[in-house]
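Late entry, written up from scratch paper. The run itself happened at the end of the previous shift, but nothing got recorded in the book at the time, so transcribing now.
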Amino acid sequence: MKIILRGYFSIADALDKLFGFLKPVVLLGARLYVAWVFFASGLTKLRDWESTLFLFEEEYAVPFLSPEVAVYLGTGGELLLPVLLVLGLFTSFASIGLFIFNIVAVLSLEFIAPAAFTQHMVWGLLIALVMVWGPGKISADALLKKSIAR
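Output as recorded:
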């Protein structure tokens, strides 16, 4: 039995090294995908500003904020935070901001379709992945950290 377990752990260690090598790529992929989703949403809001204002006044019940403040903060957040996420610059700030934004988006709707809720869950998990493990080696934060350490 010990021989089998040693063999298993030998293979598991090799896989851990492989996954460790892939970690920066996976984190970059998560950052790019989430950034694309939120940035595209921000652009949609800008393209039809009148409809965006109407939705924030009539459809979205953003807690603790007036519709006017919510529309500007929401649109600004959807345009700025994804850019930071793509660059991997101030990633902790950007990922926490988008995580909160994602939660508020779900809470502000009186009804959310199950498929839309599932999408928000996936986005939230990907953002949480970046929040917990950081932006990875392929980021401006990693470059800044190296340059400050010198």
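The CA atoms of residues 28 and 80 lie 17 Å apart.
(Scratch paper discarded after transcription.)
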